[in-house]
Amino acid sequence: MEKTLKEFKITLESRIQHASRIFIVPHKNMDFDAIGASVGMAEICRFFKKEYAIVTDDSIMDMNKGVRNIYDTVLKRYSVISSEEMTSYRTLEDLLITVDVGKKNLIPSAIVHQLDSFSHIVILDHHKEDEDSIVTGDKHVNTATSSTCEMITRLLKLFGIEIDSWLAKAFLAGIFVDTNKLKKNTDEKTLEVTARLIRRGATIQDVNDLFVEDFANDRKIQHLIDGTEFITHHIHSVALIYNRQDPDTWYAQSDLAQAADYLLPYKVDASFAFGFTGVDTVGISARTSGGMRIEEMMHLFGGGGNEHSAAAYLSNVSDLKAVREQLMKLICREDYYTVQSPTLTTDSVMVESSSENRPVVKKYSS
Ligand SMILES: [Mn+2]
Q1: 216-352, what's its fold?
Q2: 174 CA distance to ligand 1 middle (Å)
């Protein structure tokens, strides 16, 4: 049974009160939303004077500048441990809370191996569930909500917990990253929460500053976008973004997400940015304004997301071309588009990658 946020609050309070310790787990490769939700949940644990720890194996070295900025303060303000440290601290009365994630393949495997040993598991998330999702009745999973930070801001209000200006900034960054700065997946409630965070001391400028990449990284993403192929299939248009010149270049998942976000306004049904994220591992970041069933598509690669943003991580990939071919097969299938082409006589696909149509990269800062 799905719980409303108010029902979830009651469950959460009871689970926290009865736990000896609480482990808060965001998804791997934390973004602003996962970090914000983690610290929001840590505030709730503190409110009930409970011992807690945020558990992550992410390395500071892999974080982009903005995420690192927030994370540096997280390390000072909150208790953060690795999954290995968690394993050595465990008792049977521990509570596990996952935030901004519900799927097993998106949390450290050491935690997945211990799932059965927790007294209870609570999930707060806005990603669609599937057969890989952790099974629990104690969850609030609403794919219609912009971000987990929107949920956590509302939860803190329900608990009557104060939000200081740093927390407000961290939460607003989470909302911004998942809504591409309120350009998508944003409704009245998102704007209300945004207004509340601004009243608590977050400023649009501060949050925008977190999104300003360093120059070298900005150039790297620009180079990635330069390689965009616009694929025309019947009435549809899809952007494939990958580094054709230097296919072996490594990217952070956040780079791919930024590139996919970038192409979305260019009248495409969907954009897919992909590239190596490590040895033999490839990340795909997919975005749509609603023209394409990207969540289902990423699901085929073992990933997931929601109807506007989805991602997948592929292992044992040696050639980026193979990933492009797999994506092309899906792009040629009418059933992955929300609006079908009127007549389908041929299976013609046009690939256009001229420099004329190449969008100019705009910096996040202005
Ligand atoms: Mn999120």
Answers
A1: Diaminopimelate Epimerase; Chain A, domain 1 (3.10.310)
A2: 7
